[in-house]
Design goal:
The chain is α/β, with parallel strands linked by helices. The protein has helices spanning about 45-50, 75-80, 100-105, 120-135, 150-165, 180-195, 210-215, 235, 240-245; strands spanning about 5-15, 20-30, 35-40, 60-65, 70, 85, 170-175, 200-205, 220-225, 225-230. It contains nine helices and ten strands. The longest helix is centred in the middle third of the chain and has 17 residues, at about 120-135.
């Protein structure tokens, strides 16, 4: 794929003691695309997202976002620069309302995430922007409900709304369909198609290959912290190393 590179990772390595979670990963994400990231459990996919977003500091290598090195930045600064993400394990403020969860999620505000909400004008603007995101994710009727009361599918959609609150140029989705039933998964596909125009690019980790096929423009496959295939989604899924590592095909 050609176009403007929004994320450029070069020879990225991350070790925990003697265990190498990332072993020389290099890849690019282009503006406007959805990149599917696949691989078996333990392949290093979430470790890669954690390193991109600053939860882990890389052992070696480079991460350039919109042309700037971010590998040494703290996670809050990476978020403020426009990298948003969701998690395998949903992270919500369960005792806050759905609306409040989105209002406090905007990482662009300086130092204190609540500072802009203490004045009337700031709170009114935050509320309007949050309601627009809830409308996009079809959650407006639940705006005043506690996050703890949401269904699993709606909790996932709220987490996506929270990630969108920072107006990210790059969205990292870590197994967004995990635990969803068929109807919720179909809704998720519609949601992602609807929001992709709001972000510069997306990286999607997913074990559901039907989602990878329907949503991804390209795919990267990992195993044991290494990139083993990259390119057209169908070609990657049929790659011999991918079939051996991920699909359990020894032929």
């Amino acid at each position: 794929m050609s176009g403007k590179v929004i994320l450029d990772i070069t020879d990225l390595q991350k070790s925990f003691g003697g265990i190498r979670a990332l072993d020389g990963i290099s890849l690019q994400v282009f503006e406007g695309e959805i990149l599917g990231l696949i691989g078996p459990n333990g392949a290093g996919k979430t470790a890669l997202l954690n390193t991109i977003t600053g939860f882990y500091r890389p052992t070696a290598g480079s991460i350039r976002f919109q042309g700037h090195e971010i590998s040494t930045l703290p996670l809050y600064e990476i978020g403020r620069r426009g990298v948003g993400r969701t998690f395998q394990n949903i992270r919500l403020f369960k005792r806050m309302t759905v609306l409040e969860n989105v209002m406090v999620a905007d990482k662009r505000h300086a130092t204190s995430p609540l500072r802009s909400l203490w004045n009337f004008a700031g709170r009114a603007k935050a509320r309007a922007e949050a309601m627009a995101l809830l409308d996009m994710m079809q959650l407006t009727d639940k705006a005043d409900d506690l996050a703890a009361s949401l269904s699993y599918g709606d909790s996932r959609r709220l987490e996506i709304a929270r990630a969108l609150a920072g107006k990210p140029a790059l969205m990292l989705l870590d197994e967004p369909a995990a635990g969803m039933n068929d109807a919720e998964t179909e809704q998720l596909v519609e949601d992602i198609h609807r929001i992709r125009s709001r972000v510069g690019a997306m990286v999607l980790i997913e074990h559901d290959m039907s989602l990878i096929r329907s949503l991804s423009d390209r795919a990267v496959a990992m195993d044991y912290g290494r990139k083993i295939a990259e390119g057209d989604v169908h070609a990657v899924l049929e790659h011999p190393e991918v079939r051996r590592a991920y699909l359990g095909d020894d032929e």
